[in-house]
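Input/output pair, single chain:
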Amino acid sequence: MLKIAWSKIYKHPLPENHRFPMEKYELLPQQLLYEGTVTEENFFQPEPLDESLILSTHDKEYWDKLKNLKLSRKEERKTGFPLSKELVDRELIITEGTVRAAKYALENGAAMNIAGGTHHAYTNRGEGFCLLNDIAVSSNYLLGQNLANQILVVDLDVHQGNGTAQIFENEDRVFTFSMHGEKNYPLKKEQSDLDIELPDNTGDKEYLEILRNKLPELIEAVNPDFVFFQSGVDVLADDKLGRLALTINGCKQRDEIVLDTCYQNNLPVCMSMGGGYSKQLSKIIEAHSNTYRLAQKIFF
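Output:
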């Protein structure tokens, strides 16, 4: 059964003029239930993350400032969020959701988190709407528990996974692959194990051809036994923060390539939703829903 992490706390209240579309965290599960892609049984309720797991990835000094709401104004501005206890609690819930989804993926082949994909969080700071790095924490959990030996991170959000790259820059057991907009945020990129930088307005044909060629090569070269997939839909043409030009169908084909490759290679895959900032919320929901539809079709 496809297991999906979701909590009402994912939709954290923010100022009305904030550009981050928090509504998707409430509407996406409603859509999936309405159309019959999933039932209530597919969802599980994440719990607050244990502090020891946070400290497996993030510096104690940073975590102490975060949990005690002691970030400086500059540090807070870099996260993009007004800091509050509710926001920190939300990050703990999201990150635990990905940790537990990874365990479900080992059991069932695939699992998902309605939120997550917080790939801009570094060991010692938050950036770009990310405070804790759920993919990095979950990767370290699997390695620490001997549940995985070699992890491949497939990050297809339109923005480089700079925090994930920094966290694992000296960890050979985690291979970080990021395919993203060359001129998009962050302006200063970190060095992933493999970065593919795409010019503005890259469309379906060029994007999908690169992914179809590169992903099988990576599977063969890295020989992973677990995959984390950051499936941000901010690659869409009308995304406010994107600069690429994929269609809804192109984004769907992207997800199908990743999920089918994992399935054909018997690789468990844990998916985090990442970004999506299209002008029409309905497009964001449809693009994310396709990822769940494909996971059900391919794995179950």
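The first strand starts at residue 3 and ends at 5. Residues 13 and 22 are 8 Å apart (CA to CA).
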